[in-house]
What does this fold into?
Amino acid sequence: MIETILAAVLLAVSPVDTEIAGKHYLQALEFYGKSEITRTAAELTLSLEVDPGFRKSLELKERLEKEKFREGPENGGEIAREYYEKGLQYFRKGDKARAAVEWRKGTEACPFNLQFKEFLLQTEREKTASSVKKEKPAPKAAAEEKKKGPKTANPVLPAKHFTAAEKEKIESLYFEGLKLYKLGKPAEALSKWEQVLKLDPLHKKAKQNIENIKKSDNGRRPEEKENL
It folds into this structure.
């Protein structure tokens, strides 16, 4: 019976590993923005241990490799490193304009350092792509749909605003359910997701996981059938 339940819930919860890998990726991204590279790398390692194919973690890991300062007398030594690292700190925070200022200073001081030129080129490309995206007009159909306003045929529950503590509790319960499912304990996972819905009735993933578990057992909870 457990195999049947696991197979049914797999479509909703799976990739379970991707959920957990994503959580580690977001933590890595937060550390990256603060230039805490050691902690960033540690979270990326945890993410890729869970899901080796998690694309965003692979991309961030590759970025960290590219960001390493290239040693060598032709690259300007400590003077170049100072401009380079300062620019990176701005870049990681999302302040690409100030990052570019530092890298231009580095190019003037160390004209043979190719890393400055590479990152300046990357910054310009991203700036151009961002401008094009903002200027792109919305499709006509989407614009007309927007004018109509939100559909009111089916009443929708208003979204609840959670405190930081409540969000942390909900997230913790949900991921505990994922881990229990992964360990082959769907009944215990079900209990965790039901607790999630008590706190947040609009939690789509928890609701879908619960529905799939119950459907796989003809509407009966897993623990009820096990006791028959």
Residues 5-14, 218-228 have pLDDT under 50 and may be disordered. Residues 6 and 214 are 11 Å apart (CA to CA). Residues 114-135 form the longest helix (22 residues). The two ends are 12 Å apart (CA to CA).
